[in-house]
Structure formats: C-alpha cells, structure tokens
Design brief:
The protein contains 15 helices and 25 strands. By secondary structure, it is an alpha+beta fold. Helix 5 crosses helix 10. It binds flavin mononucleotide and manganese (II) ion (MN).
C-alpha cells in the first residue's frame, strides 16, 4: 500500500482510526504546539509508549478555511502505515535482499527475482507535464504569511516552516537532493534556510562558491561556511572578494509520506531521495518542472515554494526550540527568496513540532534506525544490533551490540561508527556483547556500568559534532566518548577471572513454567 499524495494518506490515517480532526479554533502561534506536544507524549513511558493520533486542525485562527496536518508519523504503527509495511524490519529485509542481489541461477531464482526488479524500477521518478501542485500558480502578490505557519515555542525567533522538503541540485553532477531543513519566515517573501554545513545542500552551495571565486589550491580551506560565519555580516567574502551567485531552490510542503520521510533519511549524497521514496512506496514519484527553474518537484505536493538563495548572502536565523529539548541559538544562514508559489486548491499545510522528546521525530528516527541496520551491518560486519534511545536526540547516544572475535574490537566499531555518514555525530557510543538486547535500557545500564573500569574502557576522540550540540567547546567541533562495556578478554590484558551472569537453568525455568498455576500467583 502506498499513497500518491498527502490526501490519500490522510484518508488512510482516518480509516485506520489514527487521525483526529480538531474543529475548535486554535492559534498557529504556540497553541498548536502545546496541543501536539501533549498528544505526542500520550502513553510515553521511558520515551517509548506510542504517541497519540495524527491531528488535522480545521479551524485555524487568522486562516479561515485552511488546515494543518501534524503528528502524521507519531507512532510506530503510523510509521509502518506511512511506508506501507507490516513492520520496519520488513523494509530492512527488502533493502537487505536488494544488497544481496546476485546473478540468478535457473528459472526459479529468476522468477523469484522479479519482485526485486520491480522494486528497482519503481525507484526512478517519473517526469509528468503537470500535476495538482500547479492548480494555483502565483508568481506575484503572494505571501508566505497567507499560510498557517507555526510559531512553535515562546523564545522562537518567529514562525518556522518545520516540515519542508528542500530540493537542490548538485552543480557538478546535476543530481537532485531533498533535505528537510527548517525555514525561519522573515516576511512574506523570504525565509532562512537552515541547512547545516554537513548536509548535502550546503555542499551544493559550497560548490557554487568554489566556482564563483577563482579556483586555487587554498580554496578548499577557505570556501567553507566558516568563512561565512567569520565575515560576521550579511555577506560572504572569500580572499577579499565578495561572493555572489544564484542557487535555485524549491520547497515542497505536504507530500506523500514516503517522500517526506525520504527527506530526513541520512542517505549517502550520491543517492537521490526521489529514489529512496520510490523504493519505499514501490511506485515512482511523479515530478513536474518548476515554473522558474529547472528543478523538479513532486507533482502532487500541496504547496511548492520556488526561488533561490544568493550564495553570498547570510542572515541571522533562530533561535528555535529544537529537538534536543533546548533552543538552538541564533546563527548566520542563507536566505531563501521566494519567487513563485504554486499550490493545490485549498492546500493542506503539513507541519511538525520538535522539542523535548518523545515527539513525532522520535518515530521517524526509529524507522531510520531499523531501515539502516542492513546497510550498517554491511559496513560493520560484527554489528548485531543498535539503538538510539529518543532521549539521546539522535546524535547523543548509540547503543551497539557486537559479536566480538578479536581484542580491541569494541573500539574498532566505535571508530567505524564515527566515520559512517551522519552517525559521525554520535557523542556517546556504548558497545555491549551480542547477548545484550540494545533496546532493553535496564540491561544496557547494568552492563555499561558493571563491565567497565572507567579509566581503561572509555575511549575519547575528537571530531565533527552535530551543529545542535550546545555543549561542545566549539560549534560543530568537539569530543566524543565510547564505552567498551563488552566482557574483557585476557588478550585485552584482563587477567582476573570474569564472572558468569546470574541466570536460572533452562530445566528449572521450564519446570516452574509448567507448574506456574499451582502457586496461585497470577
Ligand atoms: C523535523 C526535522 C527537522 C530537521 N531540521 C533540520 C534543519 O533545520 N537543518 C538540518 O541541517 N537538518 C535538519 N534535519 C535533519 C535532516 O533532515 C537530515 O540530516 C537529512 O538527512 C538531511 O538530508 P541531506 O543528507 O540530503 O542533506 C531535520 C530533521 C527532521 C526530522
Ligand atoms: Mn541527500
């Protein structure tokens, strides 16, 4: 089951009893957040209980006739519904099969391969000549303020577009990227563009900057966003010369759920998110050309913002109540200039809020965790399982179980994680043996503390850290810590005897289970 647009998805949510319509008037300033935050935390026990339903606000203060969809991904069940799967592990299995694909032997194997080939075929987006996102085309007289954009938290710098699929093209290869980067609304025609420097769109921007100034051996060092920040003002100066140039950007708001999800998936830069979405949906994404650029946007999007950033222009973005549970502070980011807005008739505005976990993004992160397991295992063969508890806000804590075969292997795994895509940001990694369930936080705590001699078993390192880390010594650069909570071996210099864990024998367990009723304890 897959959905071709947001509306099909909303109907499916409603049919599944996963949607609540709210008819009472609600203010997009702060009130939507307070309601959604409470609903997200329904049933939250240790950050793991299911979130409440998706919400469709139908009576928005100051925006008569408009609707806001929020919390669409806010439970494991909805994440599965969104991706049309029985379980997240089933999707992981499909990816695993794809990676395992080898030349089929004989007819039976060839036949078995057909569904996988269909999966592959579905990955490529399909260009169409028009679509519902062009029902209304407004190239002048438009204003972002016409849409019910939220101010999420009291100290936020203003209203923010929180669930945008931001499209850019790699200037070298022409490849399309879609990333979810929040947008601070400055006025009816401009916003901030909060792509952090490690993200793909920021690299596209740097490519254009490199091309705009004379190429030289030192450029790799200076044509980074560091220079932008150091210039202190609103324009970028490289080697004494101001940089300017247009970078086309388009933003889709309110797409089918697989595409929205694909925009947050930390896929390698070579992989287009359109293909990720196509694979997840089992059906190609239909795209149309923008009115004002060569970018392509999902034909069925509710709202499309077309425009550009000037690669040399910066403006203060934030503060913004972030998914760490703290505000991310003001910083300089590019400015998005809207030139044209196209949308469906009566567009539905899709949003999310972030803040103290668990919220909607915890469930998206869980889906990413499960779906990426096969790929992670391919890079780190001894990896058995891993888990990122929501309180670790994605980048602060990863628990990893490994099958240990040689001394020092826990540290090898830590370093592998610190060099693996966006997992590089992980501030603390706890490595346990394969017999420990990484999702059982009680068991993990027991191991992580019992099994270590802190001075010996903690590995510190330095490197890039998440832009949202507010405690690191410098923005984007700081230390990380790995805890080797595996059983220590003599070959690792541990010469004392290592005790067994306390456990009942299988025979007694089975006997007591058989007799359980006799004890009248139920
Ligand atoms: C709700 C939500 C908001 C996000 N906001 C931002 C953001 O403002 N800036 C950013 O760089 N990443 C943000 N992210 C994370 C990126 O979407 C994620 O790192 C993604 O993989 C980036 O795509 P890219 O690898 O193509 O650059 C957000 C994720 C979610 C779920
Ligand atoms: Mn990408």
């Amino acid at each position: 089951m897959s959905y071709s647009d947001l509306r099909e998805w909303i109907s499916a949510l409603e049919k599944a009893g996963e949607l609540k319509r709210i008819k009472a008037e609600v203010d997009p300033i702060l009130e939507v957040t307070e309601i959604t935050d409470r609903v997200s935390k329904w049933g939250a026990r240790n950050g793991h209980g299911p979130g409440g339903p998706a919400l469709l606000f139908e009576n928005i203060k100051g925006h008569p006739g408009q609707k806001i969809l929020i919390n669409q991904f806010g439970s494991e069940r909805r994440m599965n519904l969104a991706l049309g799967s029985e379980s997240l592990d089933e999707i992981a299995g499909r990816i695993h099969e794809m990676m395992e694909m080898k030349t089929p032997q004989g007819l039976l194997e060839k036949l078995k391969m057909l569904p996988k080939l269909a999966d592959l075929g579905a990955m490529f987006p399909k260009r169409v000549s028009s679509g519902p996102c062009k029902e209304v085309i407004r190239s002048e007289g438009f204003s972002l303020l016409d849409f019910p954009i939220l101010q999420c938290w009291p100290q936020d710098g203003g209203r923010f577009i929180t669930l945008p699929c931001v499209m850019t093209r790699d200037p070298r290869t022409g490849k399309r990227n879609i990333g979810m980067y929040r947008m601070h609304v400055y006025d009816g025609q401009t916003t901030g563009m909060h792509w952090q420097r490690h993200k793909n769109a920021a690299e596209h921007q740097r490519e254009l900057m490199r091309a705009a100034v004379a190429q030289g051996p030192t450029l790799g060092k200076t044509s980074s966003v560091d220079v932008m920040a150091r210039s202190g003002g609103a324009s970028v100066v490289i080697q004494g010369k101001p940089v300017a140039g247009r970078m086309d950007v388009a933003v889709a708001i309110g797409t089918d759920p697989a595409l929205t999800f694909a925009a947050i998936v930390p896929a390698p830069p070579e992989i287009e998110e359109y293909m990720v979405a196509g694979f997840l949906r089992g059906k190609p994404v239909e795209v149309v050309k923008c009115e004002t650029s060569d970018l392509e946007v999902p034909a069925s999007a509710e709202i499309v913002l077309e425009g550009y950033i000037d690669i040399g222009e910066l403006k203060t973005e934030g503060p913004f109540g972030d998914h760490t549970g703290f505000y991310s502070l003001e910083d300089l980011y590019p400015v998005f200039h809207v030139e044209c807005i196209t949308h469906r008739k009566n567009p539905i505005y899709a949003a999310t809020i972030v803040g103290k976990p668990p919220q909607e993004d915890a469930w998206m992160a869980l889906a990413i965790e499960r779906i990426f397991l096969p790929a992670a295992k391919m890079m780190i063969p001894e990896l058995v399982d891993y888990h990122l508890p929501p309180e670790g806000v994605a980048h602060n804590l990863m628990i990893v179980s490994i099958r240990k075969s040689y001394p020092g292997q826990a540290r090898k795994v830590m370093h592998a994680i610190w060099s693996l895509g966006q997992a590089m940001f992980t501030k603390c990694i706890v490595v346990v043996d394969e017999d420990c369930d990484v999702k059982d936080l009680r068991e993990v705590t027991l191991r992580a503390l019992n099994n270590i001699d802190p001075e010996r078993d903690i590995q510190f390192t330095l490197g890039p850290v998440d832009t949202l880390d507010h405690a690191s010594r410098l923005p984007n650069f700081g230390s990380k810590m790995g805890i080797d909570a595996t059983r220590k071996w003599t070959t690792e210099g541990f010469t004392r005897p290592w005790p067994d864990q306390v456990e009942m024998s299988a025979e007694i367990k089975e006997r007591i289970t058989r007799r359980w009723k006799e004890f009248g304890l139920e």
